[in-house]
Specification:
Alpha-Beta Plaits, DNA primase, PRIM domain, 2 domains, 6-stranded antiparallel β-sheet, alpha+beta, single chain
Length: 304
């Protein structure tokens, strides 16, 4: 394998370096493998990144080394990389985030070992207007992803009673995430955050032995945390199809509700763990199971 290469990507010259560097030592997964995965998944991934400010999570020495978050787009970025200014109260000024609107930008990020892609729920030009709600379902041991399936199914039932569709995906780590598409102009986090909290607390009331909405560590063992607090203009969530920096190169992968039901019934967590080759095969056969999250318009109903 060549250690470096200069490639043309949609008319942009991009230098790829240290291609033989192993970023996932226990899997033997190199930077070249990371770049190849993001190149192959790009047709379904790029729409979920488009027009959104991105927080980078970089692992220059691989997943077993130190990592760092990077909000301000790196000064050494190529000319073709677009940025978007987003006001930061804490900084008292704009942060110029990276925006991934091209394959060239995506591969540049892979080359600088931005293994994980963390996006905001709102588009960069309207940072206070989320296009969706999200629930991060985080199991506290001995609870696991199968307990998350049970909670996700209850949330789905609750939302269906409200006339809302929602879409599950694995986190690529130990839990799951549930997305509720909105895509309604003018809706703000002041609308979605209390709504998300209220729904989470109603599920907690129904399943108090298995669910908590309290982030205190003492409350979490054996329960699934329904984290509604992600619905905030300051927070990001790992993007669908993103790699995760775990021992193996697992991927945050969209699921069908049938898969969630089957995993819950059979108590088989292995069916909810996906590596890059698995995800590419799924996309070839199923398409983008998260496509509707980008387009489905669902006004928030009143909670009574």
């Amino acid at each position: 394998m060549a250690k470096s290469a200069t490639v043309d990507v949609d008319g942009h010259s991009l230098k790829l370096t240290n291609l033989d560097k192993v970023l996932y030592p226990r899997a033997g997964f190199t930077k070249a493998h990371v770049i190849d995965y993001y190149r192959a998944i790009a047709p379904v991934l790029l729409p979920h990144l488009a027009d959104r400010a991105l927080t980078l999570k970089r692992y220059p020495n691989g997943v077993e080394g130190a990592f760092f978050y990077e909000k301000e787009s790196p000064a050494h970025r190529p000319d073709f990389v677009r940025t978007a200014p987003v006001w930061s109260e804490g900084r008292g000024g704009d942060i110029h985030y990276t925006v991934v609107d091209s394959l060239a930008t995506l591969l540049w990020l892979a080359n600088i070992a931005d293994l994980e892609l963390h996006t905001f729920l709102a588009r960069a030009e309207s940072p206070l207007e989320p296009t969706c709600m999200v629930y991060d379902l985080d199991p506290g041991a001995p609870a696991d992803v199968l307990d998350c399936c049970d909670v996700a199914l209850r949330l789905r039932g609750f939302f269906r009673d409200l006339g809302l569709e929602c879409y599950p995906k694995t986190s690529g780590s130990k839990g799951m995430q549930l997305y509720v598409p909105l895509n309604v102009p003018g809706l703000t986090f002041d609308d979605t955050k209390p709504f998300a909290r209220a729904v989470g607390e109603l599920v907690e009331q129904e399943m108090p032995a298995r669910v908590t909405t309290n982030m205190a560590k003492a409350e979490r063992p054996g329960k699934v945390l329904i984290d509604w607090s992600q619905n905030d203009d300051h927070k990001t969530t790992v993007c669908v199809y993103s790699l995760r920096a775990k021992e193996q190169p697992t991927v945050s992968t969209p699921l069908t509700w049938h898969e969630v039901e089957e995993a819950s019934e059979r108590r088989d967590a292995a069916k909810l763990r996906f590596l890059p080759a698995d995800v590419l095969k799924r996309v070839a056969g199923l398409g983008d199971l998260f496509a509707d999250v980008l387009t489905l318009e669902q006004p928030l109903p009143a909670l009574v």
